[in-house]
Amino acid sequence: MSSSNDIRATFLDYFRRNGHEVVESSPLVPRNDPTLMFANSGMVQFKNVFTGQEKRGYQRATTAQKCVRAGGKHNDLDNVGYTARHHTFFEMLGNFSFGDYFKEQAIEHAWTLLTRDFGLPKDKLLVTVYSEDEEAPVYWKKVAGLPDSRIIRISTSDNFWRMGDTGPCGPCSEIFYDHGDHIPGGPPGSPEEDGDRFIEIWNLVFMQYEEGPPGTRVPLPRPSIDTGMGLERFAAILQGKHDNYDTDTLRALILASAEATGQEPDGQWKTSHRVVADHLRAGTFLMADGVLPSNEGRGYVLRRILRRAMRHAHMMGAREPLLHRLVPALTRQMGAAYPEILRAEALVVETLRLEETRFRSLLERGLGLLAEESGKLGDKGTLPGDVAFKLYDTYGFPLDLTQDALRGEGKSVDTKGFAAAMTEQKQRARAAWAGSGEAATETQWFDLKEKLGATEFLGYSTESAEGSI
Ligand code: ATP
Ligand code: MG
Ligand code: MG
Ligand code: MG
Fold it and tell me: Residue 76 Cα, ligand 2 centroid: separation in angstroms?
């Protein structure tokens, strides 16, 4: 069986042998892009290379990139524990050509690596192409011998990539693996595509245009390639599993969670173990890259992730801080590939322990209030916004934690009411300050806080021009 560590190494080595520079993952906090919360794809660190603003000493690169998708345009937080294929933190393996090789060779590399080096059966693979891209289907037939029935034309934005409102863009072609007809779900483009039978493993982006003001698009003189493959999804296939959470790395974390809580890994707490495993990984990697829990911006996204995991640990019966005890299981699995988590281990353990200690008593009381209020609602009811706000304000329950808790009962939160309660509280606070006759500096302080406070919601709603494939 190939371990995740072997698969990563084999991938990078294939592209190294084919003239690519092996480049380290960039940190999760993007250095050059304030509009992007976290690195969420392999191309992020190369954005300026693709646009030509920056030159590197190579024209081909390959990476295993740390990615977090828990906010902004790509938010997979709510998928965790519910689909077989989504994580908040995952590794994206990729190969990049900066004006060097293009479509045909990118397809050739992907196909060779998958079917020859990794030995995947050809008849389990199918691909999508953008409906207006006439070249990609030709190459798929030529290189892979795929019949038309396995080259699916998609006309939505899923198969057309853009770096932002303007700039490089182009069609994509995605490779899917069919896990078999015993799993519900239909092929991409069909009404049942949301199932987990056909799993997208690799996205090949063909950057071939430069977009200007709306409606203007010119061909790039030297088109580029950007690809991304999810290591966990690929490992599932190679390890004979359907589900990412059954692969070596995540399974080790689930077993650690099972041992620490005394709850069966695959019993009634299966989802909770998955959430704990995933969020522990995201939390550890974020802290190792310098993000600490806080009430704003990136730190608040981290806090939200950790608190969700803490609620699940609590549900499984943990009455003492739990997450920090699982860190060694993670460093054992991933410390060799990412030494930063070894270096940060002590800090991560201590931060988790403190964060969970502080949240525990609030959590218990907040869950009591939530149970009481939820009991007053009928089936599939909606929790009033002011209750969700009280949970947020008094008990430190991020909105999404309350939503996650209610989701299991088929209930939801009145989010408009929540936002209104939040605004009202800010106005009250402002009025109280104004009434106290304090100097103008305080008013300024509130203006500033309001402005900064907005970042708290980045994780829910900001639609920024995020570069990701
Ligand atoms: P999906 O449609 O399954 O959500 P995506 O189209 O959003 O995936 P891309 O942006 O194309 O994903 O990213 C490239 C690859 O990264 C995907 O083909 C997949 O293998 C992997 N990937 C994307 N999101 C996740 C995630 N949340 N967890 C694990 N792997 C992921
Ligand atoms: Mg997605
Ligand atoms: Mg997709
Ligand atoms: Mg995709």
Answer: 7
